[in-house]
Amino acid sequence: MIEVIAGDITKINVDAIVNAANSSLMGGGGVDGAIHRAGGPQILEECRKIVARQGECKTGEAVVTTAGRLPAKYVIHTVGPVWNNGRNQEAAQLYACYHNSLELAVARHCRSIAFPNISTGIYGYPKKEAAAIAVGAVQDFLTEPGTLEKVIFVCFDAENEQWVKKAIEA
Fold first, then answer.
1. 32, 41, 63, 95: least surrounded by Cβ within 10 Å?
2. CA 33/CA 105 separation, integer angstroms
């Protein structure tokens, strides 16, 4: 089941929420900063350990931490692409963000996951195109048996919400 809501991803009660992180995993603006603030210092501490072990998180890849004070069990941090007019494999990288996040959730036996609108804020990805990629990646993944029961797109603004709903209907 795919659901679309407007709201604050830090308040969603699911097994895993996805963070639109930067490559340093050290928090930042937008949803990344909100998740770090609401979840508390435990998330940052775990991110530091990940970076010490593997280095920065590359665009399209994902890593997982506990969720600290958030209602979710896990935070899956993924690094979306910065929009460059589609010239640098941005669509494939954005698709990978969703796919890799879903794989991490299933590997941790999650039944539900919530996504923000990855790369549509400061990274400048066009919202309509990003919504189509996000919905396509989730729908492709959900064709596999025994995956997730619920995927929620938590949209920060009405425009993202509109495009995600249209992509689902298409």
1. 41
2. 21
End-to-end, the C-alpha distance of the chain in Å comes to 16
Q: Which two tokens stand for residue 167?
A: 């992509």
Mean pLDDT, the chain, integer = 95
pLDDT at 5 over 90: yes
Residue 48's H or E segment, with its range, is helix 41-54
Spans of all domains in the chain: 2-169
Average pLDDT for 138-148: 87
Single pTM value for the model: 0.96
Q: Tell me which of 3.30.465.10, 3.40.220.10, 3.30.420.40, 3.30.70.100 is the CATH number of domain 2-169.
A: 3.40.220.10
Residue 22 CB-half CA count within 13 A: 13
* From 8, 32, 140, 157, active-site residue: 32
Question: Sheet of 74-79: strands edge to edge?
Answer: 2-6, 150-155, 112-115, 16-21, 74-79, 62-66
DSSP assignment letter at 157 = S
